[in-house]
């Protein structure tokens, strides 16, 4: 004697899943392909996330070099003259 209830409709989800199997071809594959190719690749999306970042880094580095070479020597001489007074 089985403790399982009899299915009145005769429908079995397990049999349906076994009969369906995997589809031979994904009908949405062509519609999804554009998301991962061309300008939408992972590298291109990351590269476009920070426009102008490379230019800003170069400009900041140039300013830091300018400050160390030209401006700090002017501050050092002024500070040394003020200490001798």
Explain what this protein looks like in three dimensions.
By secondary structure, the chain is mainly alpha-helical. 60% of the residues lie in helices and 0% in strands. It is built from four helices and no strands. InterPro entries: NDUFB3. It is found in: Mitochondrion inner membrane. Residues 1-24 are annotated as: Disordered.
Helix content: 55-70%
Number of beta-strand segments: 0
By DSSP (H or I, 4+ residues per run), the number of helices equals 4
Overall radius of gyration? 35 Å
Q: Overall pLDDT, averaged?
A: 78
Largest sheet: none
- Our estimate of the beta-strand percent is under 5%
* N-to-C order of helices and strands: HHHH
Separation of the first and last Cα atoms = 110 Å
- Which stretches are poorly predicted, pLDDT < 50 over at least 5 residues? none
Tell me, briefly, the overall form. rod-shaped
- Could you say which structural class the secondary elements and strand pairing correspond to? mainly alpha
